[in-house]
Write a structure and sequence with these properties.
The protein is 64% helix and 0% strand. It contains 23 helices and no strands. The radius of gyration is 23 Å and the shape is globular. Residues 512-532 are annotated as: Disordered.
Length: 532
């Protein structure tokens, strides 16, 4: 087969996939929702003061325009969540490729400002610093070079060192170079394309990983890729967490093929984006070099082998991380930058509990203790997190290494000093590869709804539309409740997946996720996607 024939065949398959997706009303409704979110992003909520949108859109900073943008965003969030619920793989639902769905949903917000975030402006400014030979880890952060790049960054992050790893900063530098040193396009289109490419990598790796652990590939893509939190925060917000997730997913995929050292190198690169990725070395090591099957060695010998493999993988990852850090040429300032995310108050449980106790102590007059109580709660939370990760290692790593990764990332996000909505995608990406039962799916969907409601409330508050924010939050929860009743309220659907949501053995064949053109399909309804 020639290259031309291969490309024509691939193009025909792609056209068929897009046609199949476009024929589904929920996919079209999700695309309209993304357009509404893109329009809502053109509002003062997360736009910097020097944004070119203020010159393009008249009266952008007036209360009527703020209210209009907030209303459009509310409808966009509700429609996107509803479309996502409707696409959950089940018996009687059309068979669509979730990767095509995400591509279509992303198109309307491709050129829009960042959605529900202004972090990408800081990414671009840090890349601009490196282009000018200035280290973003230095004191003063992006303010070291005053001008339009630094002015795009909100004041609280304008004077702090970069909190990201050296690979993340060098990628930011590359994006700035590729987009012609334009402050707006580098921070919007450039960073969003980077997030999109990263999620494409995740989507390419998940099906093979799902088959390895006996999970449903379509369900994994539905929850990990087409998830509204991913669409709004990771892709819409253009967060560099997407790069970390892509490198982790690629590391697991390479480990699944037995590439031990390559997997460790990719984990090191992911860690050089964000530190929590280091826990990925455990599943990478155990997938690439699994212990001998039962009967060929004792349980103790197999556990010892697992611990040895993880130790070797950890050493290799640390060495690779040091080499990568030295090659980036930015020094070790990321160590000091680890404290930067905790400078703001977030929904992290330890921070919230510490602030509650702090307010109580202030009321009682214990001001000296109150100043330190939040820091104490955060330190205790980090200690509990370390012991929690160790417990999860001994509980899950030996038999279900990917379960360990998902649960360890849950512990890290919940026990850390800072927690933003997009942090939940760290473990949400790998959760469908665990024991993703019907109950867990339902609870996870409620988690998505709560995150969306909270994110919209934050957005409305920054747009000075508190009343719309409260009403909208209740509307999002109500919409989630209605979809929950429709999706999970009735008796479980029959179908291919068993009670745990795992695929039956006969469905774990190599071609279980192979695309068949519409003309060859005997039935265009999903047969392996039920989650019970």
């Amino acid at each position: 087969m020639t290259w031309g024939e291969l490309l024509r065949r691939r193009w025909a398959v792609l056209r068929a996939l897009v046609a199949d997706a476009w024929a589904v009303a929920s996919v079209r409704r999700g695309m309209v929702a993304s357009l509404l979110l893109a329009l809502g992003a053109i509002s003062p909520a997360y736009l910097p003061e020097n944004s070119p949108w203020y010159d393009i859109v008249p009266y952008l900073n007036t209360p009527p325009m703020r209210a209009l943008a907030t209303g459009l965003t509310l409808f966009g969030v509700i429609m996107l969540a509803d479309a996502w619920f409707q696409l959950r793989p089940r018996i009687g639902r059309p068979l669509v490729d979730m990767r095509v769905v995400v591509a279509l949903w992303t198109l309307p917000m491709l050129f829009a400002p960042p959605v529900f975030s202004d972090d990408s402006y800081a990414y671009a400014a840090e890349g601009w610093l490196i282009h000018n030979g200035v280290n973003p880890y230095n004191e003063g952060g992006v303010s070291q070079i005053p001008g339009v790049w630094a002015e795009q960054v909100i004041p609280i992050w304008r004077y702090t060192p970069a909190p990201y790893g050296p690979v993340a900063l060098q990628i930011n530098h590359l994006v700035v170079d590729l987009f012609g040193f334009n402050p707006y396009w580098s921070s919007t289109l450039g960073m969003r394309l980077l997030s999109m490419i990263s999620m494409v990598v995740v989507a390419a790796c998940l099906p093979a990983l799902a088959r390895r652990v006996g999970a449903d590939p379509r369900l994994a893509l539905w929850f990990a890729i087409a998830n509204p939190v991913v669409m709004i925060h990771v892709i819409g917000g253009a967060h560099n967490d997407a790069v970390m997730l892509a490198l982790l997913a690629l590391a697991l995929w390479m480990a699944n093929k037995g590439r031990f050292l390559v997997g460790c190198l990719l984990v090191a690169a992911a860690t050089a984006v964000k530190i929590p990725a280091i826990v990925g070395v455990v599943p990478v090591a155990l997938l690439a070099m699994p212990p001998q099957p039962a009967g060929r060695a004792s349980t103790l010998a197999r556990q010892w082998h697992s611990a040895l493999v993880v130790a070797v993988g950890t050493v290799a990852t640390v060495i690779a991380f040091v080499v990568i850090s030295l090659a980036c040429g930015l020094g070790w300032g990321w160590v000091q930058g680890l404290n930067v995310p905790g400078m703001v108050s977030t929904i992290a449980p330890t921070t919230m509990l510490g602030e509650i106790v702090q307010n109580a102590l202030n009321e009682l007059g214990y001001y000296d203790i109150a100043r330190r109580v939040v820091r104490i709660f955060r330190q205790v939370g980090m200690i509990i997190t370390v012991f929690g990760v160790l417990y999860l290692y001994f509980r899950h790593a030996y038999r279900r290494p990917i379960d360990f990764l998902a649960y360890a990332l849950v512990a890290i996000t919940m026990g850390g000093p800072a927690l933003h909505p997009w942090y939940l995608t760290w473990w949400g990406t790998f959760l469908p590869l665990t024991h993703f039962s019907r109950r867990v799916v339902r609870l996870s969907c409620w988690g998505v709804i709560i995150v969306l409601a909270f994110s919209f409330l934050q957005y409305a508050d920054r747009n000075s539309q508190g009343i719309i924010g409260m009403v909208g939050m209740l509307a999002i929860v109500w919409a989630g409740w209605a979809n929950d009743r429709l999706a999970f309220g009735g008796p479980p659907n029959g179908g291919g997946a068993g009670p745990s949501g795992r695929l039956r053995p006969e469905e774990l064949r190599p071609d279980a996720f192979r695309y068949e053109p519409p003309s060859r399909r005997p039935d265009r309804r999903l047969v392996t996607g039920s989650t019970r």
